[in-house]
Amino acid sequence: MILSEVDHKILESYKTVLEGLADYLGDGCEIALHSLEDYDKSVIKIVNGHHTGREVGAPITNLALDMLDKIKKDGAKFYISYFAKNKRGNPIKSATIAIKGEYERIIGLLCININLNMPMLDFLSVFLPNTPSNDQSTSELFSNNRETFFDDLLYQAKAAVDNDPSIKPSLHNRAIIEILYQQGVFNMKNAVEHVAELLEISKNTVYLHLRSVKGNSSETVE
């Protein structure tokens, strides 16, 4: 198969996806990116290749070809999950995801292999914080609608400001707005109006604080 320049760029963009997934899933997970341009050296990126002993330039596997054939026959979905064994005989849980290119043809495969022989504690350690305190963990907000999202963000920012004794009471609103500004909240539609309502201040006051924040000024706005 001859790939176009666009096809190559699409596959190239998946290399960062591999690194991100590997960082998230940990050392117990091998992730390989295959290009279908040359089956003899199809692996163009691999992370944690020690699980199968492969590296960049390795050929495609018979199982990957089998999964590709099943994906093509299915037509409705471009992925498949299954159990297999590596060459050491270790059980692995695998997933093969087809990558479509410029002309809607399959140009590559993203293959994920999780080593099921890895000690459970080692596997789970990547999902546990390094410190016993959750205070050091980043809190991600999951909301069903924009209003709840605003409320949650504002509550989080307000709590951070209220718990910081170095911030003068007269600068609390400005500090809250600065946090929201740094989080990109004001890129959302009607953000100024919503923040003004929640902080019980005028829209003009919010704009004044925003100008102060953008200008890195310490000007106090009552």
| Count of spatially separate domains | 2
The amount of helix comes to: 40-55%
What's the helix count? 7
Separation, N- and C-terminal Cα atoms? 67 Å
| Rg, Å, rounded | 25 Å
Percent of sequence in beta strands? 15-25%
Structural class: alpha+beta
What CATH calls the topology of the largest domain is: Beta-Lactamase
Give the overall form.
elongated
Number of E strands? 5
The CATH architecture of the largest domain can be given as: 2-Layer Sandwich
* Mean pLDDT over the residues: 84
The largest β sheet comes out as: 5 strands, antiparallel
Could you explain how this protein is built, in words?
With 222 residues, this protein is an alpha+beta fold. 40% of the residues lie in helices and 18% in strands. Strand 3 and strand 4 form a beta hairpin. 23% of the residues are buried.
Strand and helix map with partners:
Elements: H1 5-25, E1 29-35, E2 43-47, H2 62-74, E3 79-85, E4 91-100, E5 106-115, H3 120-125, H4 146-162, H5 172-182, H6 191-199, H7 203-214
Antiparallel strand pairs: 1-2, 1-5, 3-4, 4-5
